[in-house]
Amino acid sequence: MLYSDKVMEHFTNPHNVGELPDANGVGEVGNAKCGDIMKMYLKIEGGTITDVKFKTFGCGAAIATSSIATDMIKGKSIEDALKLTNKAVVEALDGLPPAKIHCSVLAEQAVKAALADYYNRQGIDPTPIVGDIGECEACHV
Q1: Measured between alpha carbons, how far is 41 from 129 in angstroms, rounded to an integer?
Q2: Confidence at residue 134, expressed as pLDDT on a 0 to 100 scale
Q3: Is 103 a known active-site residue?
């Protein structure tokens, strides 16, 4: 299985790793059965994601997609972060092998789960805004 240089860079030197103790949006997706679990922490101020961190238990592709996804939303508005797609994550990494596309789906879902948590904490129903996060289709769980 061949990975792009960008995937290898984000796997070996992931950006934004860790936890945010003052996060006001936290989302966790994945399943121990499939082996990939992503937890995303957002600090949102004035509608902008001022800081983001992640913790991922999974393969190199899962770590790389988490890393690039955090780079793609940091400093962005909530509206821009909601537009993040797994396709954009894959493109930003110069591609992923077909068997690893589900990692990009998890990265998108982790961001949206954290945004949904943020809306819940604000007393806003996130479903019309964030949509249904669902389960990882590749895991079939």
Answers
A1: 19
A2: 62
A3: yes
The strand pairing partners of 52, in sequence order, are 42
Catalytic one among 59, 103, 136, 139? 103
Q: What is the pLDDT of residue 133?
A: 67
Report d(CA 121, CA 127) in Å as an integer.
Answer: 13
Low-confidence stretches of the chain (pLDDT beneath 50): 140-141
Q: Using CA atoms, how far apart are residues 16 and 92, in angstroms rounded to an integer?
A: 16
Cα–Cα dist 132/59, whole Å: 25
Size (the chain), residues: 141
Looking up tokens 């943020």 gives 118
pLDDT at residue 140, rounded to an integer: 44
The angle that helices 60-73 and 101-121 make with each other, rounded to 10 degrees, is 50
Place of tokens 């240089």: 5
Question: Catalytic one among 34, 59, 136, 139?
Answer: 34
Q: Which two tokens stand for residue 76?
A: 């962005």
34 catalytic, yes or no? yes
